[in-house]
User: Which sequence fits this backbone?
């Protein structure tokens, strides 16, 4: 009987194993399952309910610094943290600038762009968007905590606004604003970032006032899911990740779609293969400036003429001629996250377009992907004698916007910028690049194969380094175009 | 004097209940596959998966039982003898038709060696030699199209196999009804079922008998 | 004070200048650079060399001023004789002609298998036999009507009698239907002078230039100026100008050698837009799809297939739930698969797969020996590989020559959800699940028995709520009928459209009653139905026949019309009805849209044996017959439903295709149920008796 029992037990065990194995072999994945959820919702932050500050903040609050002192009373560390950030200093950490020998701290404070050209010598207007109070000349004290503007980011009353030198606009109820504070909303960030370049939608091409109350068609994240900027730009110690290529050259602190989405987000394997060479943004931001027109060209050389009606979308006497467009296809280029930068004093070839900033990357670099860019071209002043881009003083007494005298404006700016003016000024063409990451369309509106491939595709394949359309000739991997990191280092 | 005797070994009981579970599961899932309008689409898929899986478990279980009985030399107790069809069978049938209503004693005494009654022997002989193999073979053949669709062409095609499989399923349901009912005709209505669970049945004391 | 004067002066000046300044174009200085404007990357130019344009006799067209001959012009480098001879697009069944009634179609009046000789129920007109004394279409008539969908060559160039060129100094006294044609003005038969008209050569340009002018080509064919058809295809390219009586070459566009600037019309390999000219897959590649249902849009009308990469949601059509359909009309088109990617030339060295088909040594997986590009370009085989369709009856020996789905796709790897993969792949075509819904209206019925005065049949469409080509009609789509078709000796289930046609035939040997005869018989010269027709058909008694009354759905109506036909000289008029299946194989949905619901087929309500509506009304006494030359099976019962629709309920023989959950043999269930019921009753009765007897004994 014992032997029989043993036989029986072994037989039974074998039977069950065999049966389960057989069942598994014959029916792997037997039941149809819906395609995997491509989102990792766990990575989307859960919003904490804000602390009501109404009872905590004591008045009366007569000035901006008074508000800040009231904030620091409970949040002293936050002030210290904030004073280390680029939002306060308008320069980043010391970094290597491609094409230059030195390591430097660069930022809005000391760079040239091809919009209003430079902050230097023009502080009171530019610093309207500084998260601080009173930066009106080169003497601003960056060590003074009470000069921090907490409200511009944290006001929830909706009644807060800034004026010249970043001071609170007249008539703002500072106590109400201070009592309303909370987590920054799109409108807080947008107060400056939607108005870059001096007005709504002017600078970025993917950030404008339509994102205050966005619809899904314009931005699926903000429109469908009501995400706030800081939901993705996850902030620690007041350092906000994400870099604007116009003022930063390193790839550090970058954010990525894969912070929330999986690396293989498509059902189609073919589409997932694109991820290695194409940034998500390239297909999912099919058009930039979806609703509001953005500036794509600026000609300073025509400024100064009297016209009966100034139209900020066509011509302003103080600024010159513009071209604005909306709902347009971006420009596509290889980009590895780092960028090159024109620094004050760099020599130029006035007969060529000078790229003030430009994406780094190329087809042979495995870290490069094809990104969509907004490109802004301009014709702006340069010094004919020294062959570098000039910084004119536009704002204030004697500035170009007051007297419309370029030579005077360039001369006045010398003492602040350190750029000597030879006395002869001309205009040269420049370009600037902004990678696009906002205004992501719903997936049904993303680009399709034929938008890039085939006869009438958007991409200039040969300019990108391909022999032809990679759908037919093979991608950079199949063409053995990639140079691995080891080879590069040799 | 009454005595509890071990009738069914652990394996036999496990075998029986596994077989019972799988047969019922197969009947239910088979029914859902056939009358698919009763279930949702995912339910249909699940039923197909379950039916195939359980079917293979049943087939393996049946095969192992055959091995167990062959190896243990226990097969003969399932083979009806001549008198099972004649005198003993008649007596057994008469009990169900007449005696049971008169409260007569059961004409046969169950012992672990002679645990099957004449009619049971005949029924099980048919079930185990005809119906079960029919179901297993037609089922496996129908399933074989997953490996190579041409196999069934040598066995009359899917239509033939499906018809037989389905016919067998109806017979299995009928058998199940009678089988379950017959368990109530033991010493007490539940004694047979309890016996199949615990392995022990209560019998009148006799000399000898019982596996030790 | 001085300041004030200055201010005054400036204001005065401003006032004076105001009217001038109001003009904005003066006021706003434009940009002084344009580097912001994006210039798209230029496509690479065609490498095709310059080619001297020659006429039929080899003279330069610029000198002889005669029609362009492509056989000569292209023949300077390519083997045009080979290309046009081995080419089913040109032959159109010309090489498979047989005596009337002996074709696979079984129609007594058919003489061929293709466009030339096989009667087309959608267009009706009949190619008449050589000696039919009252022909419907003679050879020249055929070119003028069917030539719009024929590339030229074959029957448009050669005689059916002896295979010699039609315009080769032939015996003109033979009066057969090759030397006669109807005068379009009078409708009377007259001699046709082939020397004057010329013949229609295979038109290379139609497929090999970027934007051929098909409108002018068709116009030239209709005018009977066959020789000039190729020339007309170049209209609008600046090479040739239409004059009052023909075409004039623009000498300035040609070099001294007689070759035009090739870049002006770009010779290339055909892309899908060339195929669309005749096959009509609705749209240009990237446009939002807007289409019309008509025979100019052939494949849309017959099968609803739309080969376009654009998204359905972007279409301009009124399609149900359109906004949710973020899917392309055809996933292959979306992924840049062109027509010629699958329907390639069989000797194209890039596509040829010499090891497929098992005629090579077993140890070889790939045979790398190829014919050179040079050899291929000289004599490219224009018998393009094709699949199996019910409607493509010409050149059946090429059926299945193309790569099928599974030659490119490894289905085993992508169907993990599917039980019994091999069985499914074996028994049903990929299209069955991958064309889940056709989202275009397609033809259901053509009824020629009572045409309008303009000779339009009464037509019905599937998949649309309301009349076609009207914005207010909602296109809800068509779930294709699933029929068995023969494929490599096996029957497989695939998606179909079925078009039923009713029409009058006459005489012996039987042939369709010409439309002109029908018009004369049924209408007054003013274009109204004759009173006999109105009396029989006017059911609401308003003295008119409304569109919905225009049908012969009773014996009485049929006999009234038949009497009129007899009066008009039609011998023994009778109605025939045909069912022509159309295989669907384009318009493939993305994998995510494919059918995964097993119950659509595996259930008592399986779509496989769901009733298929053939027509919203039926004509009594005539049962539509499946065309025997389609490789398709429809077996089942035809029935007229309560609302008078004619339907067929398919019964697939379970021995051919057994469908689990759908097919069941009734007797099994009856016997089985009886056995179960018997067992239940038996045990119940037994139990009852036991209880009763036990009680009785208990009392006793």
Assistant:
């Amino acid at each position: 009987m014992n032997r029989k029992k043993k036989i029986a037990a072994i037989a039974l065990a074998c039977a069950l194993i065999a049966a389960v194995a057989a069942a598994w072999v014959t029916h792997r994945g037997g039941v149809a399952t819906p395609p995997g959820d491509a989102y990792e919702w766990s990575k989307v932050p859960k919003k904490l309910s804000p602390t009501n500050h109404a009872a905590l903040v004591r008045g009366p609050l007569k000035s901006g610094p008074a508000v800040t002192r009231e904030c620091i009373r409970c949040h002293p560390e936050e002030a210290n943290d904030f004073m280390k950030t680029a939002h306060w200093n308008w320069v980043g950490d010391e970094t290597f600038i491609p094409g230059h020998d030195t390591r430097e701290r660069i930022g809005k404070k000391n760079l040239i762009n091809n919009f209003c050209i430079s902050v230097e010598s023009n502080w009171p207007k530019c610093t309207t968007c500084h998260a601080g109070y009173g930066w009106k000349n080169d003497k601003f004290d960056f060590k003074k905590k009470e000069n921090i503007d907490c409200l511009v980011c944290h006001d929830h009353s909706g009644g807060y606004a800034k004026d010249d030198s970043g001071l609170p606009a007249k008539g703002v109820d500072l106590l109400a604003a201070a009592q309303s504070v909370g987590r920054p909303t799109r409108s807080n960030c947008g107060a400056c970032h939607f108005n870059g370049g001096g007005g709504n939608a002017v600078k970025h091409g993917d950030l404008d006032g339509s994102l205050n109350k966005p619809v899904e068609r314009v931005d699926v994240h903000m429109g469908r899911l009501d995400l706030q900027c800081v939901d993705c730009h996850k902030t620690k110690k007041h350092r906000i990740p994400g870099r604007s290529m116009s003022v930063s050259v390193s790839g550090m602190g970058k954010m990525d779609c894969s912070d929330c989405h999986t690396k293989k987000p498509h059902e189609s394997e073919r589409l997932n293969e694109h991820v290695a060479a194409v940034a998500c943004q390239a297909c999912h931001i099919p058009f930039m400036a979806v609703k509001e027109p953005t500036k794509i060209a600026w000609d300073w050389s025509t400024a100064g003429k009297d016209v009966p009606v100034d139209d900020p979308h066509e011509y302003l006497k103080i600024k010159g001629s513009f071209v604005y467009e909306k709902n347009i296809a971006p420009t596509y280029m290889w980009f590895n996250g780092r960028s090159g930068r024109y620094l004050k004093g760099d020599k130029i070839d006035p007969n060529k377009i000078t790229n003030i900033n430009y994406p780094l990357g190329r087809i042979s670099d495995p870290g490069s992907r094809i990104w969509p860019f907004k490109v802004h071209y301009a014709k702006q002043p340069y010094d004919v004698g020294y062959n570098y881009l000039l910084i004119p003083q536009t704002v204030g007494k004697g500035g170009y916007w007051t007297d419309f005298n370029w030579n005077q404006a360039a001369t006045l700016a010398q003492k602040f910028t350190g750029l000597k003016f030879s006395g002869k000024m001309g205009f040269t063409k420049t370009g600037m690049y902004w990678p696009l990451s906002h205004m992501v369309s719903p997936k049904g509106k993303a680009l399709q194969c034929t938008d890039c491939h085939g006869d009438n595709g958007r991409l200039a394949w040969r300019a990108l380094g391909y022999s032809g359309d990679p759908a037919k000739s093979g991608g950079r991997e199949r063409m053995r175009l990639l140079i691995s990191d080891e080879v590069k280092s040799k | 004097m009454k005595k509890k005797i071990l009738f069914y070994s652990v394996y036999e009981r496990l075998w029986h209940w596994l077989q019972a579970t799988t047969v019922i599961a197969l009947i239910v899932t088979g029914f859902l596959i056939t009358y698919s309008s009763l279930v949702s689409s995912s339910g249909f898929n699940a039923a197909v998966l379950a039916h195939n899986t359980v079917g293979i478990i049943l087939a393996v279980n049946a095969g192992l039982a055959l091995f167990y009985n062959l190896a243990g030399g226990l097969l003969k107790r399932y083979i009806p003898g001549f008198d099972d069809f004649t005198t003993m069978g008649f007596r057994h049938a008469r009990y169900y038709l007449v005696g049971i209503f008169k409260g007569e004693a059961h004409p046969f005494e169950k012992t672990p060696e002679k645990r099957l009654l004449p009619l049971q022997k005949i029924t099980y002989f048919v079930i185990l030699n005809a119906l079960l193999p029919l179901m297993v073979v037609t089922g496996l053949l129908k399933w074989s199209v997953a490996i190579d669709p041409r196999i069934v062409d040598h066995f009359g095609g899917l239509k033939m196999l499906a018809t037989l499989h389905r016919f067998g399923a109806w017979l299995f349901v009928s058998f199940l009804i009678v089988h379950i009912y017959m368990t109530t005709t033991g010493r007490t209505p539940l004694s047979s079922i309890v016996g199949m669970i615990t392995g022990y049945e209560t019998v009148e004391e006799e000399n000898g008998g019982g596996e030790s | 004070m001085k300041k004030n004067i200055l201010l005054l002066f400036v204001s005065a000046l401003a006032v004076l200048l105001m009217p001038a300044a109001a003009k904005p174009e003066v006021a706003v200085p434009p940009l002084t650079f344009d580097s912001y404007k994006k210039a798209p990357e230029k496509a690479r130019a065609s490498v095709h060399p310059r080619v001297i344009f020659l006429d039929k006799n080899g003279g330069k067209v610029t000198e002889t001023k005669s029609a362009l001959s492509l056989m000569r012009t292209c023949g300077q480098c390519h083997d045009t004789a080979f290309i046009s001879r081995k080419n089913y697009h040109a032959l159109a069944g010309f090489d498979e002609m047989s005596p009337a009634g002996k074709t696979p179609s079984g129609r007594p009046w058919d003489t061929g298998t293709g466009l030339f000789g096989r009667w087309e129920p959608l267009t009706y007109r009949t190619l008449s036999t050589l000696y039919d004394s009252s022909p419907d279409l003679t050879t020249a008539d055929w070119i003028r009507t069917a030539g719009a969908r024929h590339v030229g060559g074959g029957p448009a160039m050669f005689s059916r009698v002896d295979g010699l060129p039609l315009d080769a100094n032939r015996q003109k006294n033979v009066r057969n239907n090759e030397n006669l044609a109807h005068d379009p003005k009078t409708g009377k038969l007259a001699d046709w002078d082939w020397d004057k008209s010329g013949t229609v050569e295979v038109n290379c340009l139609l497929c090999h230039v970027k934007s051929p002018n098909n409108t002018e080509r068709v116009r030239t064919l209709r005018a009977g100026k066959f020789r000039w058809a190729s020339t007309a295809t170049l209209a609008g390219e600046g090479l040739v100008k239409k004059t009052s009586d023909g075409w004039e070459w623009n000498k300035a566009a040609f070099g001294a050698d007689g070759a035009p600037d090739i870049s002006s019309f770009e010779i290339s390999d055909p892309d899908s837009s060339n195929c669309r000219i005749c096959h009509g897959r609705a749209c240009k590649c990237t446009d939002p799809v807007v289409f019309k249902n008509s025979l100019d849009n052939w494949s849309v009308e017959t099968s609803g297939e739309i080969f376009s990469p654009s998204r359905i949601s972007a279409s301009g059509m009124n399609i149900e739930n359109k906004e949710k359909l973020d899917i392309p009309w055809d996933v292959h088109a979306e992924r840049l698969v062109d027509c010629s990617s699958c329907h390639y030339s069989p000797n194209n060295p890039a596509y040829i797969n010499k090891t497929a088909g098992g005629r090579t040594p077993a140890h070889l997986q790939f045979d790398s020996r190829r014919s050179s590009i040079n050899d291929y370009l000289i004599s490219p085989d224009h018998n393009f590989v094709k699949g199996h369709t019910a409607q493509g009856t010409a050149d059946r020996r090429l059926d299945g020559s193309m790569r099928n789905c599974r030659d490119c796709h490894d289905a085993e790897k992508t169907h993990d959800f599917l039980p019994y993969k091999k069985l499914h792949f074996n028994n049903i075509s990929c299209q069955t699940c991958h064309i889940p819904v056709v989202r275009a209206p397609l033809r259901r019925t053509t009824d020629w028995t009572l045409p309008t005065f303009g000779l339009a049949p009464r037509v019905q469409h599937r998949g649309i709520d309301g009349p076609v080509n009207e914005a207010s009609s909602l296109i809800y789509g068509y779930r294709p009928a699933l029929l068995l078709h023969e494929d490599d000796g096996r029957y497989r289930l695939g998606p179909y459209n079925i078009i039923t046609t009713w029409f009058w035939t006459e005489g012996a040997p039987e042939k369709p009653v010409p439309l002109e005869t029908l018009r004369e018989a049924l209408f007054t010269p003013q274009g109204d139905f004759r009173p006999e027709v109105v009396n029989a058909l006017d059911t609401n008694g308003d003295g008119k026949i409304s569109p919905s009354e225009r049908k012969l759905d009773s014996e009485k109506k049929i006999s009234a019309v038949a009497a009129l036909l007899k009066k008009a000289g039609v011998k023994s008029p009778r109605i025939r009805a045909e069912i022509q299946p159309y295989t669907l194989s384009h318009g493939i949905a993305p994998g995510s849209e494919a059918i995964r619901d097993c119950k659509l087929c595996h259930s008592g309500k399986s779509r496989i044996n769901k009733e298929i509506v053939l027509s919203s009304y039926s004509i009594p006494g005539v049962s539509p017959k499946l065309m025997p030359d389609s490789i398709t099976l429809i077996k089942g019962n035809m029935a007229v439903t309560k609302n008078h629709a004619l339907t067929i309920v398919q019964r697939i023989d379970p021995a051919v295709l057994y469908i689990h959950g759908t097919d069941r043999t009734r007797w099994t269930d009856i016997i089985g149920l009886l056995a179960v019921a018997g067992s239940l009753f038996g045990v119940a009765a037994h139990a009852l008796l036991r209880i009763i007897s036990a009680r009785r004994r208990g009392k006793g």
